[in-house]
Design brief:
Helix content is 61%, strand content 5%. By secondary structure, the chain is mostly helical. The strands form two sheets. Strands 1, 2, 3, 4 and 5 form a five-stranded mixed beta sheet that branches. Strands 6, 7, 8, 9 and 10 form a five-stranded mixed beta sheet that branches. β2, α14 and β3 form a beta-alpha-beta unit. The longest helix has 32 residues. It is elongated and about 130 Å long. The N terminus is likely disordered.
């Protein structure tokens, strides 16, 4: 009798044996069916050794209770006396609820676990075919299939076979099942079977002899008409057979289903015919197939049906598979497919996705397949559809480092073992790691983790996934370093030819030059070379992800040559997580940012500072520039200091723009493109204003000391005044002065002229820094008028002579440098002109429209495509800006929100005032932002300004990447630009021209 309040010895023993619910287990042990064995200590110990003792005991009780009376003694006697059966039966019952259900429905199937002959340890395809031979309908086939599956699971959970052997046996069982299904289908339609030859080609994991417990079985069907049969009728017969085969395996019966047969990897996918002739397959692959289809064919294996036809298919497609790496954008296509798979995973499941998530099984498989396709052209030892065999061959051939291959091998085996055990539990197709504590405990124990199963499982899983994430990209690039710098003595290295092939496949146009750069960076025994060897495998991957990998690597070598001896440079890249990726993006995205960086390589430090890419305020810039100009000994040195600040800040702005547009591994690309454009425009405009202020200070000091005889102000107009400057924009300005008290007007005018000439000279001195061009052509009377006027002269001119276009130009006038009070009074002077009381008259509106139409016909460069010119083309910057400016001149007198120099702010204000409907405002804004981004992209990519898309293919691809388009989608980018600007032009025709 148990003392009240104390647990029985049975309860404690069950608890120690691993049962999570000892009370329920005790009740199950008391079942009548187990009466003869319940006290046997061997049974309890064996149950405690299973993955889930509670589940194993429940399954055993159900099996025992389902036995015919004359069978039960034999089951129980064998169970306690034969350790092999005990381990296998209880092991299966403790790992698989679904197989426990099968045994309860088919209680005599436990006999299939008794035999322990040599052939039973490692059965092959022939043994599985014999196991399915008596199945003559879908229901019998399912029962026989589960019986064979039971034997595989038993060997798996007992460790008789490892994870690779388990996967191979599952593929053999699938092959035998497809053959049996085709036999059943042929028996049901003998006329169809006689009219055709049909071959079943296994793809995916079945084709690669590495199948899961529950997986779609991917197939392709090849058919030919039998001799003397019309081809069309023969293919129809083959199609009926193939369809019936798929239904036999896939449909749900009283015994459930086997697995879906998926034929969507066939040419044209589900839109294509289910069965094709061999010649039709070849015609498709030679003309239409995409890169991913050849990657899928790497695992193709003839498994059922006509063996000669299957062999002919494999022989015919193999050469096409191994030529796939020669296709344009081969690596980019493969990597794009991988990214698409990851992007389609629901966000809530990414962290639990064992197969498709980052660091998952698919990462290993994609990496191995990519390397196989690159190097398999010239090395037949790589022609394997099995991932682990291919990885071994890659390591043996020097295509992958042996240590990396060993780590990847171990990680892949562990992750596959997890996947097997997760699916085995309920025989459901899933790749998600469970969240329930009991499920995790069972999973951990099934993998041999017994002390703290859940904690140990999570730790091991995260460790292996981390290895895969780390090696996934490194796998491509580390051997390239070994090829130029012997890192591991005695290890097989990539040949120069193989290294060149890999670089070429990864997008490098000049593999020989790339190898020279790698050798220069990574060779030697210095600390710098050692750090470079750590950095380069990752950097090379980021370069390859750009439109110009060669330029990225060359620029990295230049920066490293310039900074390699500094103590902080390589340490920054190694230790500051974002710095290396940011640098790779900046160096490979075009010419402007690298050119700016080469003139002052120490600016690389900005890329490692979390605040380093944030634009500085106008006040901070002006303070730094004016202080530097004040310290300089002569005007040339003063402006050189100001231009140096400008160069550094242009690099900061360009780097932030590129990184925001491309995104990084830790932060996605900026989705608000308007915000990107506004940041660039404001930063470059503030920087230009500060530089002009510094030049003005230097010019005044060099000729007049501290005080100029006349008050002097610089007014920004055009994009400068609108805070919308691009990287290559000139600074459009007006100059205004006002003689100081007691100063003769002629003397004041001469002083102003002298200062302007000196500013222009200083800002255009030939130096390593980019020049700043000042354009004053928007002044009254244009180039025919005086370069600078007094405030009174401006007032007299505007009062008497001002034209409508000049009032329009003043809409974006804003003081940017010089005497602040004079600048404010200039704005007070022009406000009535640009925001006329009661708005524009009809004559003025007609004049603006006439000028715009004339500009469209006369100023567009000859030969330019009007649908792609960002400034003057259809729906481009000019269209949007003139439309917004006309609204400002007509309504700003009554709507204060329209009194702004910035296009987008004025557009928002017009919408808020209900002067533009919502949809039209959005269309105009989208077109203006896109056209501005294209202009910025052209300057970033080419290093020189341009108003239309580049003609050179690589530059055009780089513009597309900056705009967020994947590699190989330049045509899509141009189509989108034309579509967006066409819609904008329709709005312009309505709002501006009144059409």
């Amino acid at each position: 009798m148990t003392v009240p309040g104390r647990r029985s010895s049975t309860f404690i023993r069950l608890l120690r044996s691993g049962f999570t619910d000892p009370s329920a287990a005790a009740r199950l042990l008391d079942a009548d069916a187990l009466a003869s064995v319940r006290a046997d200590p061997v049974l309890l110990d064996a149950l405690g050794a299973t993955a889930d003792p509670d589940l194993a005991l429940l399954g055993l009780v159900r099996l025992a209770e389902a036995q015919p009376p004359d069978e039960l003694p034999g089951l129980l006697d064998t169970l306690v006396s034969a350790k092999p059966l005990r381990d296998r039966l209880l092991g299966v019952l403790g790992a698989s609820e679904a197989l426990g259900d099968h045994l309860a429905r088919h209680p005599l199937d436990w006999h299939s676990l008794i035999t322990y002959e040599a052939a039973d340890l490692h059965p092959g395809l022939a043994e599985f075919e014999r196991g399915l031979a008596d199945a003559h309908d879908p229901v019998q086939l399912r029962v026989s299939y589960r019986r064979c599956l039971l034997s595989i699971a038993a060997r798996d959970v007992c460790g008789t076979i490892d994870v690779a052997e388990t996967a191979a046996e599952l593929a053999d069982l699938a092959t035998a099942t497809l053959r049996a299904a085709l036999r059943i289908a042929s028996a049901a339609a003998p006329a169809d079977a006689a009219a055709c030859r049909l071959a079943v080609i296994a793809m995916g994991k079945c084709g690669g002899n590495e199948l899961n417990y529950v997986s779609d079985v991917d197939v392709i069907f090849v058919g030919e008409a039998a001799p003397g049969t019309d081809e069309g009728k023969g293919i129809q017969a083959a199609t009926r057979l193939a369809s019936h085969l798929m239904r036999i395996c896939s449909e749900t019966t009283v015994e459930g289903t086997i697995w879906p047969v998926d034929a969507n990897l066939r040419p044209e996918g589900r839109n294509g015919p289910l069965v094709r002739t061999l010649s039709s397959h070849l015609a498709y692959y030679q003309r239409w197939a995409k890169t991913w289809e050849f990657q899928a064919l790497l695992k193709a294996r003839a498994v059922a049906g006509d063996p000669d036809l299957g062999a002919q298919y494999i022989d015919a497609i193999s050469p096409l598979v191994w030529q796939a790496a020669e296709r344009e954008n081969f690596v980019a296509d493969v990597q794009k497919m991988r990214r698409r798979v990851v992007d389609n995973i629901p966000a809530a499941q990414v962290d639990r996705e064992l197969k498709l998530g980052p660091g998952g099984l698919r990462d290993v498989e994609f990496a191995v397949q990519l390397l196989q396709l690159v190097h398999g052209r010239h090395d037949a030892t790589l022609h394997s559809g099995t991932t682990l065999d291919a990885l071994h061959a890659l390591a043996a051939g020097g295509y992958v480092g042996r240590a990396d291959a060993a780590q990847l091998h171990d990680a892949y085996r562990f992750l596959r073992a997890m996947e097997h055990r997760i699916q085995l539990y309920r025989l459901r197709r899933t790749h998600l790691v469970p969240e329930d504590e009991n499920d995790l405990r069972r999973l951990g124990r099934s993998l041999g983790l017994r002390t703290e199963p859940v904690a140990e499982l999570n730790k091991a899983w995260r460790r292996h996934a981390s290895v895969v994430r780390r090696l996934h990209e490194k796998l491509f690039y580390r051997p390239l370093l070994d090829a130029v710098a012997q890192l591991t003595p005695g290890e097989t290295r990539l040949s120069p030819r193989a290294a060149g092939q890999r670089l070429e496949a990864l997008g490098y146009a000049d593999p020989a030059a790339a190898l020279r750069h790698l050798e220069a960076l990574a060779s030697g025994v210095t600390r710098a070379a050692a750090i470079q060897r750590t950095l380069l495998p990752v950097l090379l991957g980021w370069f390859a992800d750009s439109a110009d990998p060669d330029a990225g690597l060359l620029n990295f070598r230049k920066v490293s040559d310039a900074l390699g001896k500094t103590p902080w440079y390589l340490r920054l890249l190694r230790d500051e997580g974002a710095a290396a990726e940011n640098l790779a993006r900046v160096l490979s995205a075009g010419r402007l940012a690298p050119d700016l960086l080469m003139r002052a390589p120490e600016a690389v430090a900005l890329l490692g500072d979390p605040e380093g890419l944030t634009p500085r305020t106008h006040e901070a810039l002006a303070q730094e520039v004016l202080a530097a100009a004040g310290r300089a000994g002569d005007p040339e040195a003063a402006v050189a200091a100001a231009r140096g600040v400008r160069r550094r800040e242009l690099f900061r702005t360009a780097a932030a723009d590129l990184i925001g547009s491309y995104g990084t591994e830790d932060s996605p690309a900026e989705e608000d493109h308007g915000a990107l454009v506004d940041r660039v425009g404001a930063a470059v405009s503030d920087l230009t204003a500060a530089t002009i202020a510094g030049a003005l200070r230097a010019a005044v000091q060099s000729h007049y000391g501290d005080t100029l005889p006349t008050r002097f102000a610089v007014i920004g107009v055009g994009r400068f005044g609108g805070h919308e400057l691009g990287y290559g924009s000139d600074a459009d300005v007006l100059f205004v002065h006002e003689p100081r008290e007691g100063v003769d007007e002629q003397e004041a005018a001469k002083a102003a002229q002298t200062v302007i000439a000196e500013m222009r000279r200083l800002l255009q001195l030939p130096t390593a820094d980019p020049p700043l061009l000042i354009d004053a052509d928007l002044r009254p009377e244009g180039r025919s008028g005086p370069l600078v006027r007094t405030l009174a002269s401006y007032a007299a001119y505007y009062r008497r002579w001002s034209l409508t276009w000049e009032s329009q130009a003043l809409l974006r006038a804003e003081p940017v440098a010089g005497d602040a009070d004079l600048g404010s009074r200039f704005i007070e002077l022009i406000d009535p002109l640009r925001y006329p009381m009661e708005g524009l008259g009809e004559d003025a509106v007609r004049e603006i429209r006439r000028l715009k139409a004339r500009m469209e016909s006369e100023r567009l460069p000859r030969g330019a495509d009007p649908t792609l010119h960002t400034k003057l083309g259809r729906g481009g910057l000019s269209d949007v800006e003139w439309t917004v400016q006309l609204i400002q001149m007509r309504h700003a007198w009554a709507e204060p929100g329209l009194r702004t120099t910035r296009t987008r702010r004025a557009l928002y204000a017009a919408h808020a005032a209900e002067l533009i409907p919502t949809e039209e405002a959005q269309i105009l804004d989208e077109a203006w932002v896109l056209a501005t981004r294209v202009r910025n992209a052209v300057m970033l990519v080419r290093g020189r300004a341009g108003d239309t898309f580049p003609s050179e293919a690589r530059d055009l691809a780089a513009v597309a990447r900056y705009l967020g388009y994947a590699e190989g989608t330049v045509g899509e980018m141009l189509d989108d630009y034309r579509r967006i600007t066409r819609r904008a032009r329709a709005v312009v025709d309505e709002l501006f021209y009144g059409a």
